[in-house]
Design a protein that fits this description.
Blueprint (H helix, E strand, L loop, with lengths): L1 H30 L6 H26 L7 H17 L4 H24 L5 H20 L8 H5 L1
């Protein structure tokens, strides 16, 4: 009996999150048939893809025995800059490329200051968060930047 209990605890620890996700999907599918549509599935994939890409990059940072908490702030800054450029008339592809370059440059500066400048990763991460927040506050002034969907889907 004790062995069965240990096995159940083992499976709950290893597969608990997956089981909870499956139950959540089943429950939402029953309550809302629109949830089961292909369009919704692709919408969920699009919305979560950025988190997957960030997690992929963070894996390498964590493998080097460091941590960088500034990724979210740099992402927010790059996204706001991209939206601002699009609404200012910059072509969508160019705006996306420029915002990607800006985010990469911020990450490069942060990484160089940690590796070559011998700054603590946590301190540099917190500094980068504050810099990105200040730049973001200047860009958005606590307002949303409306971008017409037609500009992006063309």
């Amino acid at each position: 009996m004790n062995e069965k209990k240990n096995k159940l605890v083992y499976y709950a620890q290893d597969f608990g999150a997956l089981i909870a996700l499956a139950l959540l999907i089943i429950g939402i599918s029953i309550v809302s048939p629109e949830f089961r549509t292909v369009d919704n599935f692709f919408s969920l994939l699009r919305q979560s893809s950025i988190n997957g890409l960030i997690a992929f990059g963070m894996t390498f940072v964590i493998l080097t025995d460091a941590i960088d908490l500034s990724v979210g702030s740099v992402l927010a800054l790059s996204t706001a800059l991209c939206a601002g450029m699009i609404t200012a008339g910059v072509p969508v592809g160019l705006a996306m490329l420029l915002s990607l370059v800006i985010g990469a440059l911020l990450g490069l500066v942060s990484g160089l200051l940690v590796t070559k400048g011998r700054l603590q990763p946590e301190l540099m991460g917190q500094t980068a968060i504050e810099v990105a927040k200040k730049l973001l506050a200047g860009e958005t002034v606590e307002k949303s930047i409306p971008v017409e969907v037609e500009l992006i889907t063309k």
